[in-house]
Every structure is written in structure tokens, then in C-alpha cells.
Design goal:
It contains no helices and 13 strands. With 212 residues, the protein is mainly beta. The strands form 2 sheets. Strands 1-2-3-4-5-6-7-8-11-12-13 form an 11-stranded antiparallel sheet, with no helix packed on it. A two-stranded antiparallel sheet has the order 9-10. The chain is globular, with a radius of gyration of 20 Å.
Length: 212
């Protein structure tokens, strides 16, 4: 299950604005960050972020989300339990700094799902740091390093083990904006998971995107 699933959106309302160096947004909606189909239960999620711009080029913020994530039709719940009793809780922090042709951006996310089958729940931590540099108008390069760590749970044999494999990713690429409406990119991505067997995957991609 992804921490954030952004391929679709659910109904909700949100308010956002700023006051001096501070910025904010808060909202209420159906579903949760990881499970848009959770809109089939009777709960609502609450989301929000508070940000600070203490200096030119520097931004930072803290964000969070909380709501029931199980979907209609989930079976095996304890007697008397409801779908709405099991929540996804997300806390995040972000940092951005830019100066001249250089841009740095980083995010940290702590995530937890309540579970009807695992009393302690399932939790993980993920993060990434990204650097971007504009060489001249239209041409830029970027590098991102990211990772995901899974908390330990009881494996049923008296030992505690991570509930999934720690994963790391390195990604780099160059891009060129041909016109204000067209951009070309070349990207290399290296993924590796440190489970019972070390898995490594190299990906190469080229992309041409045109908006109109």
C-alpha cells in the first residue's frame, strides 16, 4: 500500500492562505492519502500544513493527515469493530532553499496504519533530498536520493523483523525546455531493496511532454 496515492482525488473542502511569513492550509475530505477508495466508509480525513518563510529563498513546513483507510467490504474485523475505527496517521516535514541557479528540496514522512490484525499497527518512515541546478535558461540537471524504512513487528515466532524490505532509490536526470510549452528529459534511476535477497533495478527513460 502506498503512503500517498495521487492518481485520483476525492471530494472535500480546503482553505489556504498566508499571513506575513506564515502560510497555512487545512481541509476535510473523503478517503485517506493512501486509499482513495476509503471514501466508501463513513469517515472523513483531516489534512493540514503550516509553513514558514523566514528568509528569501527559504521555506519550511509541517503537515499531517488523519482518517479511516479501510474500504467497504473489508472482512475479518474483530467483533463490534467498524471500518472507521482504523486510521491512517501521517506527519510530514518539508524544507526548500533556493539561491541563484541552485534549488534544494527535502521531505520527511512518518506514517502509521492501525490494523485489525496486528495490534501494534504498521508504520514506516520515508524521506528524500533533491538538488536541482539550472545551467542556463531552459537547461537543468537534478539528483534525488530517497529511502523508505519499515518498523519491526512480531513475526509470530518470537522475533521482531521489519514488515517489508528497506528500499533506497537514486535518481538523476537532465531536462531542456524547448519552448514554454514543450520539455524534453533524460532520466536514470537506480533502485535497491535490502530484503532476504538484495534486489537491484536500473531504469532509463526519455520523455517529451507538450502542453496546449
Amino acid at each position: 500500500m502506498p503512503i500517498l496515492y495521487d492518481s485520483c482525488w476525492n471530494l472535500g473542502v480546503a482553505a489556504f492562505g498566508d499571513a506575513g511569513k506564515w502560510e497555512y492550509n487545512v481541509g476535510v475530505g473523503r478517503g485517506t492519502p493512501s486509499t482513495m477508495k476509503a471514501s466508501t466508509n463513513d469517515g472523513f480525513q483531516v489534512i493540514g500544513r503550516v509553513g514558514l518563510k523566514p528568509a528569501i529563498g527559504l521555506r519550511m513546513g509541517a503537515s499531517g493527515a488523519y482518517g479511516p483507510y479501510l474500504v467497504f467490504g473489508t472482512t475479518g474485523l474483530p467483533p463490534g469493530a467498524r471500518l472507521e475505527d482504523y486510521k491512517q496517521t501521517v506527519f510530514g516535514f518539508d524544507l526548500e532553499y533556493s539561491i541563484g541557479h541552485f534549488l534544494f528540496f527535502s521531505e520527511f514522512v512518518r506514517n502509521r496504519w492501525d490494523s485489525p490484525f496486528i495490534p501494534e499497527g504498521l508504520a514506516n518512515t520515508s524521506w528524500y533530498i533533491e538538488w536541482k541546478y539550472t545551467f542556463w535558461p531552459g537547461l537543468y540537471g537534478a539528483v534525488r536520493y530517497s529511502g523508505m524504512h519499515f518498523d519491526e513487528i512480531d513475526n509470530g515466532k518470537g522475533a521482531r523483523v521489519p514488515w517489508d524490505s528497506p528500499t533506497r532509490r537514486v535518481e538523476s536526470g537532465i531536462g531542456y525546455r524547448i519552448t514554454p510549452m514543450a520539455r524534453f528529459k533524460l532520466v536514470w534511476q537506480y533502485n535497491y531493496s535490502e530484503g532476504e535477497t538484495l534486489e537491484r533495478v536500473d531504469l532509463y527513460a526519455g520523455q517529451l511532454s507538450v502542453s496546449f
